[in-house]
Write a structure and sequence with these properties.
heterodimer, A: D-Maltodextrin-Binding Protein, domain 2, 2 domains, five-stranded mixed β-sheet, 14 helices, about 45% helix, B: 12 helices
C-alpha cells in the first residue's frame, strides 16, 4: 500500500517533468555550432556589452532574423566593461560599447588573441534633465554642470549654481559607476573619467532616474536621449552651453556636432577572428552595416551623419580585409 | 504574610472583571498580529499592483510570441518561458538524485558521532545560507570557464543545482528522520538487509516529505536572476533552447530587461510576465502542499 502510494507520487512527478521536457523539446531543429557548417545560412552569433547599445543591436538582430531565420543572434547586457571581459576571452563575436575601448581592455584582448575593429553605429545625446516644474533652469554652461557634479562638490541648492535661481535644494540622480554613460559624462564634464561627486542617487535603471527627477522639484539627472524622448511629459531637458550659446539635445544638433560636449557616438567592436571563422556572424555584421540607418530608426536612436556613414563603410572594409574576406 | 497575598488574588479577579485580560496580554497579541500583517499586506500590495499593471498584456501573445524590441505591442516572452522550463527541468534532473542520495547517506549510513560527518553537516547548513550571487561567481569560474561549458542551459542548471542542493539535502533528511526507528528495526528483525529496509520501508514513507522539499527548492531556483546574470544569460533572444548546449534566457532576466527599457509598454509587459512567474510559483507551492496533505502519514 505504502509502496503503491509512493509510486503514485513519483509517477505524478515524473509525468510532470516529462511533459515539461517534451514542451521544451518541441522546437528541435535549428542551431548547429557555427563552425560545423560553412554554408553561411545557419549558425549562432553572440553579442554582449553595453545596455545602452543593446536595443540597437537587438533591433538589428530582429530585422536580420526576418530574412535569416536560421541564424540565431543573442544579445547580452553585461555592460561595456563586463562585455569586453568576455569579448577578449573570445567568448563573444562582438561587443556593444557606449564608450571607446580602454587601454587595459585592449591589452586584455591582445593577450586573449582577439583582434577587433572599432565602428561607430549610432549617436546619442547625453541629456541633462530637470523637473518639469523647474521654470528657472533653461540652459546650463559646462562650467555650471561641473560645479554641480565635480567630486566633493558643495553645491546643494540651486541658488549656489546661479544667484538668480531660487532657494531650492538640488536632488541629484545619475547612472551607477559601472555604466559607460557615467564614464562619458564624467569625462566630458569633470575632465576625468570616473571623477564625480558620490552623494547622488545612483541607478543602473534609467527609469529610476526619470521617476526620481519627476518626483522632486529640485531634481536633476542625466541619461541617454531615448529615455528623454520617451519621457518628455515627465522631465524637461536642459540646454547646454559649451561657450557658443545654448544648444538643446536633438538628432540634428547631435549630427552636426553642435550639441557638445555631451553628444556621443555609440560603438560596436566586432572580432576579426569571429568575422573570419563564423559565416553567420559575417552575414549579420554585413546586414548591420548596410542597414544601419534603418536599424537606428527602428530602435529610436539618432542615426549617423553622412561623414560617419562613409567612415563606417571604410571601417567595415578594413575589418573584412583583416579577416581575409573579400 | 498571608495577609499580603489574599488581596492580590482579589485584585486580579477585580481587574479581569473590569478590563478583560491584562494589558500586557492584549498588547502582546496585537504585536504578534502586527508582525503577521506586515508580510500579508506587503504580499497583497505586490500582487494587486502587479496584477493591475500587467493585466492588459496578460494575453496569449505573451507566451506565443518572441521578444521584440521594435514592437512592444506584439512582443512575447516565449523564449524566456521555455528557457525557464529547460533550466528548471535540467536542474531537477541533476540536483534531486544527488541531493536525495546524499541525504540517505547522512541519515542511514553515516555515523553522526564521527568528526568528519559533523563537519559535512555544518558545511551543508552553511552552504544553504550562502548568497546566490556567490554561486554565480563559482558557476562562471568553474562551470562556464574551467569546464568550458560556456553560457548554456547546462551551465545554468549545474549552477542552480549547487544553489538548491543544500535545501534538498536538508529537507530530505528531515523527511527520512521522521520515519520512526521502529519501522527500520522491524524490517531488520524480519531479516531484511539494510538496502531492502531503506528501499522498501524508509524511502516510500519519506517520499511525500522529500517531494515537498524538492518542489520548494525548485521554486527558489526558478525565481533566481542574480547568478544567471553573472553567468551571462542573454537578455535578447528570439529562439527557444534546443538542447543543453543552447543559449537561453529565463523569466526573471526577461523581466529585468523589460523593466529597464525606455518605452512604457515594456513595463506593462514586465508586469504581465511577473504574473505568469507568480502563477507558476503558486502552482508549484500548491502542489507541494497537496502532496504533503495527501500522502503524509502520522506515526
Amino acid at each position: 500500500m505504502r509502496i503503491a502510494r509512493s509510486i503514485k507520487v513519483a509517477s505524478v512527478l515524473c509525468v510532470g517533468a516529462m511533459t515539461l521536457a517534451a514542451c521544451g523539446g518541441s522546437n528541435n531543429e535549428s542551431t548547429e555550432s557555427p563552425a560545423a557548417d560553412g554554408g553561411g545560412t545557419s549558425g549562432a552569433v553572440r553579442v554582449d556589452g553595453s545596455s545602452t547599445v543593446a536595443p540597437l543591436t537587438s533591433a538589428a538582430a530582429e530585422l536580420f532574423a526576418e530574412t535569416n531565420p536560421d541564424i540565431n543572434v543573442t544579445v547580452g547586457t553585461s555592460g561595456t566593461g563586463g562585455g569586453f571581459e568576455k569579448f577578449c576571452r573570445g567568448e563573444t563575436d562582438m561587443n556593444d560599447a557606449s564608450r571607446q575601448i580602454e587601454d587595459d581592455e585592449a591589452a586584455n584582448c591582445e593577450e586573449g588573441g582577439v583582434e577587433f575593429q572599432e565602428m561607430v553605429v549610432a549617436n546619442d545625446a547625453l541629456t541633462v534633465v530637470v523637473n518639469p516644474g523647474n521654470d528657472f533652469v533653461q540652459c546650463l554652461t559646462v562650467e555650471q554642470l561641473k560645479q554641480i557634479w565635480e567630486p566633493k562638490s558643495e553645491v546643494n541648492n540651486w541658488n549656489q549654481v546661479d544667484p538668480s535661481f531660487p532657494d531650492e535644494p538640488i536632488k541629484l540622480f545619475g547612472p551607477g559607476t559601472d555604466s559607460g554613460t557615467f564614464d562619458y559624462f564624467t569625462d566630458a564634464i569633470n575632465g576625468e573619467e570616473g571623477a564625480s561627486r558620490t552623494d547622488y542617487t545612483p541607478s543602473e535603471d534609467d527609469n529610476v532616474i526619470v521617476t526620481g527627477v519627476s518626483g522632486s522639484t529640485g531634481g536633476m539627472g542625466y541619461f541617454g536621449y531615448t529615455y528623454y524622448e520617451e519621457n518628455q511629459d515627465k522631465v524637461k531637458a536642459v540646454e547646454i552651453d559649451n561657450g557658443d550659446g545654448c544648444v538643446a539635445p536633438s538628432p540634428e544638433t547631435v549630427q552636426d556636432g553642435s550639441y557638445a560636449p555631451l553628444g556621443r557616438p555609440l560603438f560596436i567592436y566586432p572580432s576579426i577572428q569571429a568575422l573570419g571563422s563564423n559565416p553567420a556572424f559575417a552575414s549579420f555584421l554585413q546586414y548591420y552595416v548596410e542597414n544601419d540607418a534603418q536599424i537606428a530608426e527602428a530602435a529610436l536612436f539618432i542615426p549617423l551623419n553622412e561623414e560617419q556613414v562613409a567612415e563606417l563603410e571604410s571601417e567595415y572594409a578594413d575589418a573584412k580585409s583583416a579577416a581575409g574576406l573579400s | 504574610m498571608s495577609a499580603v497575598f489574599t488581596p492580590i488574588g482579589e485584585q486580579v479577579k477585580q481587574d479581569l472583571q473590569d478590563t478583560g485580560p491584562p494589558l500586557q496580554d492584549r498588547s502582546f497579541r496585537w504585536v504578534l498580529f502586527g508582525a503577521l500583517s506586515v508580510g500579508i499586506i506587503t504580499l497583497a500590495a505586490l500582487l494587486i499592483f502587479v496584477f493591475l499593471e500587467g493585466y492588459p498584456r496578460l494575453t496569449p501573445t505573451l507566451w506565443q510570441n518572441m521578444p521584440s524590441i521594435r514592437f512592444p505591442e506584439k512582443a512575447g516572452a516565449q523564449s524566456a518561458i521555455m528557457g525557464s522550463i529547460w533550466v528548471i527541468v535540467t536542474t531537477a534532473v541533476i540536483c534531486l538524485p544527488v541531493g536525495i542520495m546524499a541525504a540517505i547517506y547522512l541519515e542511514e549510513y553515516a555515523d553522526p558521532t564521527k568528526r568528519f560527518n559533523k563537519l559535512i553537516e555544518i558545511n551543508i547548513q552553511n552552504l544553504a545560507a550562502v548568497p546566490s550571487i556567490v554561486y554565480g561567481i563559482l558557476g562562471l569560474g568553474v562551470i562556464a570557464r574551467a569546464l568550458a561549458l560556456g553560457q548554456t542551459v547546462i551551465t545554468a542548471a549545474l549552477t542552480l543545482s549547487l544553489l538548491v542542493l543544500p535545501v534538498v539535502i536538508i529537507s530530505s533528511r528531515e523527511a527520512i528522520r521522521a520515519v520512526p526507528q521502529s519501522i527500520r528495526a522491524g524490517s531488520l528483525a524480519l531479516g531484511a538487509t539494510q538496502w531492502q529496509t531503506i528501499s522498501r520501508q524508509v524511502m516510500p514513507a519519506a517520499v511525500p516529505g522529500i517531494a515537498t522539499g524538492a518542489i520548494l527548492a525548485l521554486s527558489r531556483a526558478i525565481g533566481e536572476a542574480a547568478p544567471l546574470l553573472l553567468l551571462g544569460a542573454v537578455t535578447f533572444i528570439t529562439f527557444n533552447p534546443d538542447g543543453l548546449m543552447s543559449s537561453y534566457t529565463v523569466m526573471p532576466i526577461q523581466i529585468y530587461n523589460w523593466i529597464s527599457q525606455s518605452r512604457e509598454e515594456f513595463q506593462v509587459l514586465a508586469a504581465a510576465l511577473c504574473i505568469i512567474l507568480l502563477g507558476i510559483l503558486l502552482v508549484m507551492n500548491a502542489f507541494a502542499i497537496y502532496l504533503r496533505n495527501r500522502f503524509q502519514r502520522r506515526w
